[in-house]
Amino acid sequence: MGPSVITVSPDLRSVLRLGLVALDEVTVVERDPRLDAPLAEAESRIRTHPPEERLAVRAMYRRVGLDPTKRRPSSEALLRRVRKGEPLPRINSLVDVCNWCSLEFQLPYGLYDLSRVRGPIVLRFGRDGESYPGIRKDDVHVGARIALADDDGAFGNPTSDSARTMVTVETTRALLVVFAPADLGADALSHVIATSSSRARTFCGGVETFAGLA
Q1: Which H or E run contains 199?
Q2: Domain harbouring 150, CATH code
Q3: What's the total number of domains in the chain?
Q4: pTM recorded for the entire structure
Q5: CA-to-CA distance for 20 and 59, rounded, in angstroms?
Q6: Backbone angles phi, psi at 107, to 5 degrees
């Protein structure tokens, strides 16, 4: 998988950029006890020194007409949860790694099973009436909102992903996407990508087939 497989719509290039990690041969388990300590440490650190919500991510939402206090970026939702004293949700080992990274870097992440993606991926505005079944949620409406889409339609955005492409314990090929504000420096985003890839491979194995920007 390379950068040519994912394209960003011209009307979104000034708003955000994507950090990408593609992995093959991953092993996803329901719960990896090796994650207990680093996740608990991350939660404790956030509660002791709580970061402000990343203003650039809120600005990214506002630039496309969304109120980030009503439709929160997934990273901010995790931050608010941990601030209230709740633990990070434990879904499966790869999702848990992404939630850890999203909490720490305060950037929205998307995670997708590449075997369920059909054809090339594009980041675009959702079409009128476009929606998809969310993960453990009602339909996610993406009309006029930032959305990742393939030949079968939209399947992800910076707030909530789709059930169709979600990562499960059966996943062996995964795509990790960081939705970053366009003004985040390339060096900073490269650090986020490298850290995310390293943690994913540490806890889920696999081979990195692509890591970079789109």
Answers
A1: helix 186-204
A2: 3.50.40.10
A3: 1
A4: 0.94
A5: 21
A6: -130, 140
